[in-house]
Amino acid sequence: MGVLRVLWGIMGRISMFRSYQIVLLLAAALAVVAFYYFGSEKQNFSSTTKRIKETQASHNSNRDDADLSIDIQPGHLESRPGAGAELEGKPKRFHALMMFTKVDKSLSLQQKFQTAMRSMVKHGRFLEDEILVLHYVSDLGSQEFGEKMLPELLLDASFQYEVVFHNVDTLTEKLFPIVEAMQKHFSAGSGAYYSDAIFFLSVAMHRIMPAELKRIVQLDLDLKFRSNIRDLFQEFNHFPSDAVIGIAREMQPVYRHTFWQYRKENPKSRVGDPPPDGLPGFNSGVMLLNLDSMRRSTVYNQLLEPERVARLADKYHFRGHLGDQDFFTMIGMEHTELFYPLTCGWNRQLCTWWRDHGYGDVFQLYYHCDGPVHIHHGNCNTPIPDD
Known about the structure:
Elements: H1 2-39, H2 45-64, E1 92-100, H3 107-123, E2 130-138, H4 140-153, E3 160-167, H5 168-186, H6 201-208, E4 215-219, E5 223-225, H7 229-233, E6 245-249, H8 254-258, H9 260-265, E7 282-290, H10 291-296, H11 298-302, H12 306-315, H13 324-332, E8 339-342, E9 348-349, H14 363-367, E10 375-377
Parallel strand pairs: 1-2, 1-4, 2-3, 6-8, 9-10
Antiparallel strand pairs: 4-7, 5-10, 6-7
Helix pairs in contact: 5-6, 5-12
């Protein structure tokens, strides 16, 4: 009997052990079935991998296969559905414009363009529902060059973008009647040259672009970004109520020289004096144009009238050759409220020409720049330092 009890106990333990194993095996089998059955309806390893690949393919398609062969018709900014519009429920667009003429014939311009675009892409960061719209005012030859180069230059962009080419002849035809009278005061030639009108694009852009385009940043080609271009657009949020343009001061004594006669007649004037208390004038390498505010500003639009331009030019004995920059500088001497001063770091000009041409004693007063540098501006063909 004792032996039987022992044997019976051993058999019970074996039976319990086998039952436990069977339960474990059944649970594991049910888990596998549940994984494949329910996972096929929701999300499993395969579907997740597929989704990642689809996302990457979509992203690459956006970057590499974007339609860069846009040739807009006269008077139309919308090169594709929604381009230029800020409609509710649509992606938010940030508009940036560059003059892009004669680039196909100039190796120097091509190199500057590549530097500007590569640095913009390197530092550019936007949110998922935001699009950077790149506008290029171009002749046909330069547009063809841009269409070939931009896919490569934008290849590594981490943000969505669109490209719009504006025909320079079409814009010039629209600009000329508006700016013809001011050209003799601010152009290199002795008269109002039709082709020079395009150098006043920023002055009257609010009158020739569609009303849907409310804000735009205009940039020179000889720039190198060291910060996110999106941060530049945030400067619009700091505009005072009357300001229509954001622009950095000129960092050389250019206008100390240009206003020499007025300064001689008015020795107590701040015109042409260095910062922080003087009025050194502006540099148009980086400009924030609030087109909506420009359209609404009675003061600004009155300043575009030929009689007002002539009166101010006579008052200040002003003759310039830098186009829009000269115009903004001249009206800024009397209407500082129209301008939001960008810090020098957003347009860190590197040219030192005037230091060696008669103004070495005061040059540093204009050239000095405190704070971080966001954009280097290699004006007058000055080499831009490496990062």
